[in-house]
Amino acid sequence: MNKFTSLHHLNLFIHMGMDYPITSEVYPYFYQKGYRIKFISFLLQVPKLTKDKIQKQINTSINANVVPELIYENIETRELILLECKLLDIKYDPTNRDVKQAFGYLSLNDKEIFEYMGGIGEQNKSKLFYSVLHENQSSYEEVLNTIAGIVKNTASDHLPFEVSGIKVNGNEIDLCLKNSETGDIEEHHITSDPLLLIIPIDPEVNLKNEYGREVLEQNLKMTIATKICPFVGYKNIQFSLEDVCEEIIPVWRLWSKHPKTKIRELIKYYMRQLSKELEKIGLKIILDRGVYQIEKTDLKIGEKVRNFFRFNSSEYIEKDSLDSFEQMVIEEWIGEI
Hints:
The protein is of the alpha+beta class.
């Protein structure tokens, strides 16, 4: 990749929490350790009493809320890992926004996190997990240890934390973790392939990212092609906006409400643009209460629609595979008549 961005950083940890086979080009480190993605971009409130005490101690404000990139939960121990990704280096300065955020994170406690997430049953243990570039690993450990000492002296305890490093060399990505017993850095190779963006655009970072918008739009076209092309000209078609969102972004249900609202509106916008193009060749798509509806058309319009997707497809849509998929579904559907 040309540049490892914050969006790549987030997607890397999504990949590491997914169920990949042994033969995959991605090593799902956290999945193999028993962790599953529980939430993405879930807002947590910093306990007010602790926040007020620390602000008085350091004579400046700290974060009232923190939003981990994602939260893992261990399927056996139920331990929670709160992931925070950083690409810039850090130094201790209470007025710095990253330091204020770190104060907020380390002021959290198991009880508050458990209750805020609507916990039921036995209370989870929680840990903060910082992922930074390998060359910044030691500086983050130093600063977080300083902050942890202040929080502990002020509020009697702090959230446990770990700092990991990421080594990026082209498409090669390694996860660097410190062995808690020996102090040695252990490297785990995660992937050698270009990183697929499961979340192609993050509105919390940059909703105007041109590349992310292009990927989102092309993924939408591919999704709509598979929903329309096999059936158009043969039967009525309907599918929901939520189904489209879930197919475009496989971790959609795990994403918190705020970013999803923005992405949903962006998908609706691209869907309106696509509908205008299809209406020019005779296909009308109506959105009614979150459901897209297409009435049965004649076979000529159906073939025009299929040709539209064949000849307007991008590198994300293989024309041959689309033809094969259409034929397979059409034959299956006709066989049920």
